[in-house]
Design brief:
The structure holds two protein chains of two kinds. By secondary structure, chain A is α/β, with parallel strands linked by helices. Chain A contains eleven helices and six strands. In chain A, helix 9 links the parallel strand 1 and strand 2. Chain B is globular. Classes of the chains: A alpha/beta, B alpha/beta.
C-alpha cells in the first residue's frame, strides 16, 4: 500500500507543479501500467510473499520512478527542439525559475525516497531472519536499483547542465547586444540627428562628429579609468572638454600613467587652461597635447600653430596665463615655460617633479 | 626628393567613398594609378600597376591590410606601404609596422600632410603620426624590470627619444631639425632607425600588442 501511495502521489505532484497545460497525465499511464504489470507478473510467478515477491515490488517501484523521470525529461528536450532556440524554451524556465526548480527538487526527493524505501524494505524484510547473506543480497539489490536510477538521471543532469550553460551564454550575448544597441541609440543616432539638423553649421558638425568619434573610440578600445584617479584619464578628459566646448581637435598623446593627487590635478588644470587659451586665441582647428610620465618628472606640452602672441604684452592682458598656468604650476612646485611669437604659434611646457624633494619652483618665460 | 616625376599611388580601402575622397584630394600632388576594395583585388592590381606607394587601409575583410602587406612584401619589395586607418589602437599600428609598412597616418590627416607623407615614404623614410610616436615611446620606455636582450634593437638612443617626443608634440620634421639643431636628413635617419627597431625588436610590449590581435 505504501508503494502504491508513492506511485500515486509522485507523478501527480510533479505534474501539478510543472506546466499543467502542456503535460498530459495520460502519458504517465504506460509507466504505471508497466509497473503494475511487473507487480502482477511477480505475484503470478512467485506468489504473494517471500523474497521474490518483495523483489517484484521493488522492481515495480524503480521502474515507475525511472519512468517518471524519463517522462519528465523528454518533454523538456522536445520543448527545446520545437521552440525557436533563441527564445528561452518554456521547459528552461522550469529549471531556472524558482517555483519550478522546486518541482525539480521534488522529483529528486521523490526518487531518493523510493530508493531509500527500497533499501529499508529489504533490510526490514530480511534482517529479522538473521540471515546475513540475504541482507547482503538485499543491499546489492538496492545498489543495483540505485545504479539504475543513476543511469536514468545522469543524462538528464548532463543535458540540463548543458542547456543551462547554453542559455547563460545566450543571455550574456543578448545583454551585450542590448548594451551596444542602447549605446548606438543614445549616442550615435542622436549625434547623426543633430548633424542633420545643423548641417549648415560646419563648426557645429565638426564638433558633434569629433565628440561622437571620441566617445565611440573610448567605448571600443579604452579600458575605462576614472579621471579622478589616473593622470592619463584626467588629461584626456580635459582635452575632451575643450574639444566639446570650443569645437577644435586636440591631438592627445599620453605616454605612461600615474595616480592622481592634488599636484597632478593642478598640472591637469594648468594644461586645460593652456588648451582653452589655444582654442580661444590661436585661431586654429588643431592643437597638439602631449603628456609624458617619467620616473622623475611629469611633463605636458600644449602646442598650436596659430597666431601666437608677443610675450612682452602678455603680462597685463592675459590673466589666464599668469594666474591659471604659471602661478598654479609654481604653487605646486612645478614650472611653466611659454614659447610664443606673433605668427609662430604657441607652445606651453608644463613640468612637475614626481616628488616634492628637490623641486624648484621657478618661473621662466622664454621668448 | 624626386619632384620632377610624379609619384604613382595605389589605394586599398573597402570604403568606396573614402577612396573617392582621397583620390580627389591627392589628384594635385600624385598620380593615383589604381584602387582596390578587397585583399584579393589589391594583390592582383598592385602587381599589375607597380605603384611607388600603396595607401593601405588597416581594417578590411579577409585579413585586412596586413594580408596585403605580407603577400606583397615577398614578391614586390620595392613597393612602399603607408598604412592609413581610422583606428588609433596600438595593436593595429604596431602590427602593420611590424608587417613592413613604412609609416602610419590616421584618416583625419589633411591632404597636404598626406601628400608629404607619401613622398617621404616613397623616398624610403618613415612616417609616424604623433600618436604612433607616443606608442613607441611607451613601448620602449626603460623599465628596470624588463631585460634587454639586444640593446642595439631593444633600446632607443637619447636622440631618437628626443625626436619621437617632438613628433608626439606635433612638430613637423623641419621644426624638429630646427629645435635640435640638426638637419632634416638627420631627423629622417633617426625616425627610420626607430622604424627599423620597431620592426625588428622582440621587446615584450611589442610582441604583446601584436599578439593581442594575433598579428605576429
Amino acid at each position: 500500500m505504501l508503494y502504491a501511495g508513492f506511485w500515486a502521489v509522485l507523478p501527480q505532484q510533479v505534474t501539478n507543479d510543472e506546466q499543467p497545460a502542456r503535460r498530459d497525465l495520460a502519458a504517465l499511464v504506460p509507466f504505471a501500467a508497466i509497473g503494475l504489470g511487473v507487480v502482477l507478473l511477480q505475484g503470478l510467478l512467485f506468489g504473494d510473499n517471500g523474497l521474490a515477491g518483495t523483489a517484484g515490488w521493488l522492481i515495480a517501484v524503480i521502474a515507475v520512478g525511472a519512468g517518471v523521470i524519463w517522462h519528465q525529461s523528454d518533454p523538456a528536450r522536445r520543448g527545446q527542439w520545437v521552440d525557436n532556440p533563441t527564445k528561452a524554451p518554456p521547459w528552461l524556465a522550469a529549471v531556472v525559475e524558482e517555483s519550478d526548480r522546486r518541482s525539480f527538487l521534488f522529483r529528486f526527493i521523490g526518487g531518493g525516497v523510493l530508493v531509500a524505501t527500497g533499501i529499508i524494505g529489504v533490510v526490514a524484510v530480511y534482517a529479522p531472519a538473521g540471515n546475513l547473506a540475504s541482507v547482503f543480497n538485499g543491499v546489492i539489490f538496492a545498489l543495483v536499483g540505485l545504479l539504475g536510477v543513476g543511469v536514468v538521471v545522469a543524462p538528464l543532469l548532463w543535458r540540463t547542465f548543458n542547456q543551462l550553460r547554453t542559455e547563460r551564454e545566450g543571455r550574456i550575448r543578448e545583454q551585450e547586444r542590448a548594451e551596444l544597441a542602447a549605446m548606438i541609440h543614445d549616442q550615435v543616432l542622436h549625434t547623426l540627428a543633430l548633424i542633420q539638423r545643423n548641417s549648415t553649421d560646419i563648426k557645429e558638425v565638426q564638433r558633434l562628429a569629433r565628440g561622437q568619434e571620441r566617445s565611440l573610440r573610448n567605448w571600443l578600445y579604452k579600458p575605462t579609468a576614472s579621471p579622478t584617479e589616473r593622470f592619463a584619464a584626467a588629461i584626456e578628459e580635459a582635452a575632451a572638454e575643450v574639444e566639446d566646448t570650443y569645437a577644435i581637435t586636440v591631438e592627445t598623446v599620453v605616454v605612461g600613467d600615474t595616480d592622481c593627487d592634488e599636484r597632478v590635478g593642478a598640472l591637469v588644470a594648468a594644461a586645460r587652461e593652456a588648451l582653452v587659451n589655444a582654442a580661444r586665441h590661436a585661431g586654429v582647428d588643431t592643437v597638439s597635447l602631449y603628456a609624458e610620465v617619467e620616473a622623475d618628472e611629469l611633463s605636458v606640452f600644449v602646442r598650436d600653430r596659430g597666431t601666437g602672441f608677443d610675450l612682452d604684452t602678455m603680462e597685463d592682458s592675459r590673466h589666464g596665463v599668469r594666474g591659471s598656468i604659471i602661478g598654479r604650476m609654481q604653487r605646486h612646485g612645478g614650472r611653466a615655460v611659454i614659447r610664443s611669437g606673433p605668427g609662430d604659434g604657441t607652445e606651453v611646457r608644463l613640468t612637475l617633479p614626481a616628488s616634492r624633494d628637490g623641486s624648484t619652483a621657478e618661473k621662466e618665460v622664454v621668448k | 626628393m624626386t619632384d620632377d616625376r610624379r609619384l604613382t599611388v595605389f589605394l586599398v580601402d573597402d570604403h568606396a567613398m573614402f577612396r573617392a575622397g582621397v583620390r580627389a584630394e591627392l589628384g594635385a600632388h600624385v598620380d593615383v594609378v589604381g584602387e582596390a576594395s578587397s585583399v584579393a583585388e589589391a594583390l592582383t592590381r598592385i602587381s599589375a600597376t607597380q605603384p611607388d606607394v600603396v595607401l593601405l587601409d588597416v581594417h578590411m575583410p579577409d585579413g585586412g591590410g596586413r594580408a596585403v602587406l605580407e603577400s606583397m612584401r615577398r614578391t614586390h619589395p620595392q613597393v612602399k606601404f603607408l598604412a592609413l586607418s581610422v583606428s588609433d589602437a596600438a595593436e593595429d599600428v604596431i602590427g602593420l609596422i611590424r608587417a613592413g609598412a613604412r609609416g602610419y597616418v590616421t584618416k583625419t590627416i589633411s591632404p597636404d600632410e598626406l601628400a608629404a607623407a607619401i613622398r617621404r615614404v616613397a623616398d624610403g623614410d618613415a612616417v609616424f603620426s604623433p600618436r604612433l610616436a607616443g606608442f613607441v615611446l611607451d613601448a620602449f620606455a626603460s623599465r628596470p624590470d624588463v631585460p634587454v636582450a639586444d640593446p642595439e634593437l631593444d633600446q632607443l638612443t637619447n636622440r631618437e627619444r628626443e625626436v619621437l617626443r617632438l613628433l608626439a608634440r606635433g612638430y613637423a620634421y623641419k621644426e624638429i631639425a630646427k629645435e635640435l639643431y640638426i638637419s632634416i636628413k638627420t631627423v629622417e635617419t633617426h625616425v627610420s632607425n626607430v622604424l627599423r627597431k620597431l620592426q625588428m625588436s622582440n621587446r615584450y610590449e611589442l610582441s604583446r600588442w601584436a599578439a593581442d590581435r594575433r598579428l605576429v
